[in-house]
């Protein structure tokens, strides 16, 4: 086979979960031929991951589907307070203002991104991604099982089975993306290893319908933790009620020990558990489905092998705590897709693809550690809620928590500290938005030095134009007078040269270079007026300086000052682009 051969598709993606569907949507948007296979006949059939953080929402915004996501999501304000209560109907113990909705954090969140957080279960998210991807040209092959692949210098031959009739056939693609989840066969076949511990704990989930409006609508939350001796369990030590369709469809969750086999999912046992968790002894429910999921703590140090690239749960496996699941998958996809597109189109050399592992593997490792730590961080809360020496630890612990004496005072002070620790799970804007890309696709800042974190980097976003960070959000004003974000004037599959009215030399340089993938954004000019002077406040460079922003919104290069001449600007800019993109070869190589 050689590079001029007729490929069936440019990129074949295995899996249509958050990783695969986002990859397909982005590639189709960028005009790259992409085919997705999924062994099932449609998208996720249970709610699964749901927290959609601001960075993932920014990905959706760039790909033009944020409005669809907002339409189908539980709105940000209803994500609300996370409750710790004896049951949904029973006495409440503690609340934490979460997901940035609290008075003390909401400003940080509003300042950090044009996108609100959303609660959008995967079975609603995936159809949005898939439908839009298909509308933009992605090909989806359902009931199609990936069997294996062989790669050579020019492409990948992927073996598939049509599960409708058992027929096996091969598809030839330039690149293969393994988005096949936590049991990834693509990873195995590519010889890529995942390190860590799998199934170290387990959780039982029951999706059910019951109208619990009267217990929830006045204190909206998507997570109600239930502290009770009767149905508590495992590492987190509490049962969970998660609002899926406020307030009529829910998930009841409880930990179980996987070494003791599967949990009891008989209708009687489920009703018993749900009645304990809700605290409504005569509640009737309609059971929709049951599932179990395992607590994994594992990640891959390397995400790619030759022409095969893996992402999502295939490369990082962790529990839902911190709500980083589908968010991280979607961001893997967003990082990878433009790079594949640029190489396929001949804008970049294949070496650009090496930056995918370098930029995303550290994030995967961090997310796995954070999510697992967030589970362990329930221990101090449980200590406040329990007295292990008593026959009924929860009853005794809660009695002490209400005690007017010194023991009660101490316990309540400990509760305040324990709640504060949970900000690292529930108000961790820094974990969500502070990633820094370090690779050859980002040119180090000549003047920046080491980054100094001004506040706790897990809790607080540090907006910066340092290369490797995402472009800071600042509100500008569009031609029609509507507010538009700095994020709205970059991205959409292109590199952006961002400068100010004083940066004319850079504008001329970009025009002279006339690269098909490079647009010029002059902040201050009509369409991007800095009427609030908000960009001035965050840009960290002179008005005449310049940034190169990648299609994924990451700053790739910055120049603090203006260029002396347009010619000098042109040389500097051309050199920067060549360094970032590597040595381009013929389209599709
Ligand atoms: C029951 C359940 C509940 C969960 N609950 C939560 C939660 O509450 N919160 C949270 O954050 N996360 C949760 N998760 C995890 C979350 O769903 C994942 O982080 C996320 O789905 C990973 O996305 P992905 O695209 O990498 O993989 P997946 O969503 O797992 O998608 C994998 C895709 O690959 C396809 N596939 C796999 N093998 C093959 C093959 N051989 N041939 C063809 N297709 C194949 C699958 O059909 C699927 O389309 C849950 C997961 C499960 C299974």
Question: Could you walk me through the main structural features you see in this protein, from its secondary elements to its overall organization?
Answer:
- With 589 residues, the chain is α+β, with helices and mostly antiparallel strands.
- It contains 19 helices and 24 strands.
- Strands 1, 2, 7, 8, 9, 10, 16 and 17 form an eight-stranded mixed β-sheet that branches. An eight-stranded mixed β-sheet has the order 5-4-12-13-14-11-15-18, with helices on both faces. A four-stranded mixed β-sheet has the order 22-21-23-24, covered by helices on one side.
- The site of flavin-adenine dinucleotide has 31 residues, from helix 1, strand 8, strand 15 and helix 10.
Which key features would you list for this structure?
binds flavin-adenine dinucleotide, 19 helices, globular, 589 residues, single chain, eight-stranded mixed beta sheet, FAD/NAD(P)-binding domain, Glutaredoxin, 32% helix, alpha+beta
Helix/strand layout:
Layout: E1 9-14, H1 18-29, E2 34-37, E3 51-52, H2 54-62, H3 66-72, H4 76-79, E4 81-85, E5 92-97, H5 106-112, E6 118-119, H6 122-135, E7 139-141, E8 144-151, E9 156-162, E10 168-178, H7 185-190, E11 195-209, H8 213-216, E12 223-226, E13 239-245, E14 249-256, H9 267-278, E15 286-299, E16 304-305, E17 308-310, E18 316-317, H10 325-344, H11 354-376, H12 379-385, H13 393-401, H14 406-421, H15 423-426, H16 429-433, E19 475-477, E20 483-485, E21 495-500, H17 504-513, E22 518-523, H18 534-538, E23 546-549, E24 555-559, H19 566-581
Parallel strand pairs: 1-2, 1-10, 2-7, 4-12, 10-17, 21-22
Antiparallel strand pairs: 3-6, 4-5, 8-9, 9-10, 11-14, 11-15, 12-13, 13-14, 15-18, 16-17, 19-20, 21-23, 23-24
This protein binds flavin-adenine dinucleotide (FAD).
């Amino acid at each position: 086979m050689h590079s001029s051969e007729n490929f069936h598709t440019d990129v074949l993606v295995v899996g249509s979960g958050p990783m695969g569907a986002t990859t397909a949507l982005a590639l189709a948007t960028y005009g790259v031929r992409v085919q997705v296979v999924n062994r099932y006949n449609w998208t996720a059939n249970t709610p699964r991951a749901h927290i959609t953080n601001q960075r993932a929402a920014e990905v959706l915004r760039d790909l033009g589907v944020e409005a669809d996501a907002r339409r189908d999501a539980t709105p940000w304000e209803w994500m609300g307070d996370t409750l710790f209560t004896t049951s949904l109907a029973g006495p409440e113990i503690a609340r934490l203002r979460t997901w940035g909705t609290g008075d003390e954090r909401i400003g940080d969140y509003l300042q950090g991104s044009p996108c609100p957080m959303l609660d959008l279960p995967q079975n609603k998210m995936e159809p949005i991604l898939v439908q839009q991807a298909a509308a933009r040209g992605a090909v989806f092959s359902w009931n199609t099982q990936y069997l294996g692949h062989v790669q050579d210098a020019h492409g990948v031959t992927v073996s598939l089975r049509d599960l409708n009739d058992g027929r096996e056939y091969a598809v030839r693609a330039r690149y293969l993306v393994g988005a096949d989840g936590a049991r990834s066969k693509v990873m195995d076949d590519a010889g890529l290893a995942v390190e860590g511990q799998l199934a170290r704990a387990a959780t039982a989930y029951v999706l059910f319908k019951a109208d619990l409006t009267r217990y929830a609508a006045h204190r909206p939350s998507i997570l109600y933790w239930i502290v009770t001796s009767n149905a508590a369990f495992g590492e987190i030590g509490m049962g969970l009620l998660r609002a899926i369709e406020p307030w009529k469809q829910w998930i009841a969750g409880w930990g179980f020990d996987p070494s003791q086999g599967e949990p009891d999912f008989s209708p009687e046992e489920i009703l018993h558990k749900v009645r304990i968790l809700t605290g409504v002894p005569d509640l009737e429910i309609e059971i929709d489905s049951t599932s179990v999921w395992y607590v994994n703590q594992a990640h891959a140090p390397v995400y790619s092998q030759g022409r095969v690239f893996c992402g999502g749960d295939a490369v990082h496996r962790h529990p839902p705590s911190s709500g980083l699941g589908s968010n991280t998958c979607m961001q893997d996809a967003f990082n990878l897709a433009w790079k594949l597109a640029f190489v396929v189109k001949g804008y970049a050399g294949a070496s650009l693809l090496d930056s995918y592992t370098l930029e995303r593997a550290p994030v995967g490792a961090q997310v796995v550690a954070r999510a697992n730590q967030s589970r362990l961080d329930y221990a101090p809360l449980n200590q406040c809620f329990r007295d292990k020496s008593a026959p009924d630890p929860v009853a005794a612990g809660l009695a002490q928590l209400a005690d007017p004496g010194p023991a009660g005072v101490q316990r309540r002070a400990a509760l305040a500290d324990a709640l504060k620790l949970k900000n690292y799970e529930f108000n961790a804007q820094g974990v969500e938005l502070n990633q820094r890309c370090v690779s050859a696709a980002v040119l180090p800042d000549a003047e920046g030095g080491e980054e100094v974190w001004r506040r706790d980097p897990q809790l607080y976003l540090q907006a910066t134009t340092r290369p490797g960070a995402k472009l800071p959000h600042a509100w500008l004003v569009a031609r029609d007078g509507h507010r538009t974000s700095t994020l709205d004037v970059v991205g959409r599959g292109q590199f952006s040269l961002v400068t100010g009215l004083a940066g004319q030399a850079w504008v001329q340089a970009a025009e002279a270079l006339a690269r098909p993938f490079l647009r010029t954004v002059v902040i201050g000019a009509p369409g991007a007026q800095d009427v609030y002077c908000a960009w001035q406040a965050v840009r960290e460079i002179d008005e005449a300086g310049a940034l190169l922003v990648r299609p994924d919104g990451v700053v790739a290069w910055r120049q603090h000052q203006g260029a002396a001449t347009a010619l000098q600007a042109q040389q500097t800019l051309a050199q920067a682009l060549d360094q970032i993109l590597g040595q381009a070869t013929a389209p599709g190589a």
